[in-house]
Amino acid sequence: MSVTALKPYRFPAKDVRENFPAPLLYIGWEDHLMFCSPVALPLPPDMPFGALAQAVLPDVYGAHPDFARIDWSEVLWFKSGQPWSPDASKSLADNGLTHKDVIRFRTPGLIGIQGSCS
Fold it and tell me: Are 45 and 51 in contact (CB under 8 A)?
């Protein structure tokens, strides 16, 4: 996504890929307001996409009472607001994810603590 500045931008951007230990990936869980916004995580581009659910997201969202009830085979994924079907066996890079991409996931049947987002 590009942004058009209103005035000249006369200094180097600080959020370029080279300034982070790995590309940043923003990940948000739809309909779960315990988390107000997507989280930004530096994730290696060669990490399999399937490792998100198994190794990364439990540390991020595991405190939520709905997390343990997620049926990952039913999760709906979105990339930049559009429906998206990542391949769990392919790497983040092979799924087309690059620095500062935003992905979100929706968990059918789980809509916040005790249905609070219905």
Answer: no
